[in-house]
């Protein structure tokens, strides 16, 4: 703007007289990272929705409420330091592969009606 | 808002080639096959260094655009006409800052700290969407931004949400949900002026005339003159070409402007019925470059306001710091 006059009266009140010295944010100044888990209604699971930067867990909850609880339904939030999340290596995904015969773990693996029908048939004869 | 189609890249071709040479061809093939199958890439996965670099650049600049984009609108919070408009504008500006945070987090999963991104913004090394280097002179400008700039951003963000990087897609899903409110409240305020008094209509027409060129710049230079982006398309980093997105925007929104009896300052603007594509006069791309490189009406003010905020908020952040604590990146 001409003469450094802003259209924003608030900006003019700041009297920005930036010295030209670079402004540098130091490492750690934006604090640590916390993962946020959101519970939509009583009885539902807490679901991971993202994360916030905060200096401690209490403030992480405050920021999480602002960031993840300001619009949609929410009854509760959890936060946990990202550093405390233990996860499998994504490269080991194949250990969850379900290509084995696992119908013995499944209701569909047990055919009771066939047996009942066979029994009933055999009794009639 | 506001990922424009145009993502500034610093010229650094040599480093790029060097990095690419070091990618393990077997891992690269597996990575590309995963993307071709429509699967997402997650932070712990192996990825080509060029994919990582391009994503950091894209997501970081998107994040900066959200933060800087809140400034021209924030200007008008105290002067928004009426209580409901004021509430809506406060909510929108808060959303945009929230978008910035979601996006910084997504970029952090790729290995660049939020502090480093903010420093690159303040030093001018990292860019943000060019449209925010223009002033919001009247309330009508705010309605044009809320309606048309957010609409343009939505075209871009809906496309990017189908990309390959999991954390970015998840952030965009949430962002797009909130953008639908931005667009609707912007359209509503725009229509109110368009159907209002002659003075209100004149104010809106004036704002449209001033914003049309920046809006045409929004998606970046035409495909024919922009650098090769085939690899980025294959890797699902770039999801649509600049021309495709611009055409999609024009196709949806020009009729919504014309139906209100407003005009656009380009006599060549029309839809070619045989090709289905929109035609328009070439925007001034020299001006576009000049503004990106600091020569726009508000570049200096935008960064100075950010610097002021960093300097004056520092004592709070410092008081709550834990020196020596190990800082980690987001998990997902
Ligand atoms: Fe928005
Ligand atoms: Fe946004």
UniProtKB/TrEMBL annotation, chain A:
Domain of life: Bacteria
Protein name as it appears in the record: 1,2-phenylacetyl-CoA epoxidase subunit B
A Pfam family reported for this protein in Swiss-Prot or TrEMBL: PaaB
Automatic annotation (TrEMBL), chain B:
Stored Gene3D superfamilies: 1.20.1260.10
Superkingdom of origin: Bacteria
Protein known as: 1,2-phenylacetyl-CoA epoxidase subunit A
Species of the source: Chitinophaga alhagiae
Organismal lineage: Bacteria, Pseudomonadati, Bacteroidota, Chitinophagia, Chitinophagales
């Amino acid at each position: 703007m001409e003469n450094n006059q802003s259209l924003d009266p608030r900006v003019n009140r700041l009297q920005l007289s930036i010295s030209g010295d670079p402004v540098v944010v130091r490492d750690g100044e934006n604090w640590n990272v916390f993962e946020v888990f959101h519970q939509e209604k009583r009885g539902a699971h807490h679901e991971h929705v993202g994360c916030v930067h905060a200096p401690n867990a209490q403030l992480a909850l405050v920021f999480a409420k602002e960031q993840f609880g300001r619009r949609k339904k929410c009854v509760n939030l959890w936060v946990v330091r990202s550093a405390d999340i233990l996860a499998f290596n994504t490269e080991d995904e194949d250990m969850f592969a379900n290509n084995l015969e696992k119908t013995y773990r499944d209701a569909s693996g047990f055919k009771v009606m066939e047996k009942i029908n066979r029994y009933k048939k055999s009794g009639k004869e | 808002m506001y990922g424009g189609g145009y993502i500034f890249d610093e010229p650094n071709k040599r480093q790029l080639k060097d990095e690419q040479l070091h990618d393990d061809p077997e891992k690269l093939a597996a990575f590309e096959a995963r993307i071709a199958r429509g699967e997402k890439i997650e932070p712990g996965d192996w990825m080509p260094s060029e994919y990582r670099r391009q994503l950091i650049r894209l997501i970081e600049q998107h994040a900066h655009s959200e933060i800087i984009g809140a400034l021209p609108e924030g200007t008008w919070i105290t002067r928004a006409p009426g209580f409901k408009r004021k509430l809506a504008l406060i909510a929108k500006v808060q959303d945009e800052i929230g978008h910035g945070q979601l996006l910084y987090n997504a970029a952090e999963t790729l290995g660049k700290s939020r502090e480093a991104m903010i420093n690159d913004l303040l030093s001018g090394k990292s860019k943000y969407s060019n449209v925010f280097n223009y002033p919001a002179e009247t309330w009508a400008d705010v309605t044009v931004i809320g309606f048309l700039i957010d609409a343009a951003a939505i075209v871009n963000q809906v496309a990017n949400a189908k990309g390959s990087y999991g954390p970015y897609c998840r952030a965009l899903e949430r962002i797009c949900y909130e953008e639908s409110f931005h667009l609707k409240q912007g359209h509503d305020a725009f229509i109110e002026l368009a159907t209002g008094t002659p003075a209100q209509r004149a104010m809106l027409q004036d704002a449209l005339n001033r914003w049309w060129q920046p809006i045409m710049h929004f998606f970046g230079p035409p495909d024919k003159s922009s650098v090769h982006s085939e690899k980025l398309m294959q890797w699902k980093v770039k999801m649509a070409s600049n021309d495709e997105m611009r055409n999609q925007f024009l196709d949806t929104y020009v009729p919504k402007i014309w139906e209100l009896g407003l005009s656009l300052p380009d006599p060549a603007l029309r839809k070619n019925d045989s090709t289905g594509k929109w035609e328009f006069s070439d925007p001034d791309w020299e001006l576009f470059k000049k503004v990106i490189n600091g020569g726009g009406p508000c570049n200096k003010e935008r960064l100075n306001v950010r610097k002021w905020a960093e300097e004056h908020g520092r004592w709070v952040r410092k008081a709550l710091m834990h020196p020596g604590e190990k800082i980690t990146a987001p998990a997902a």
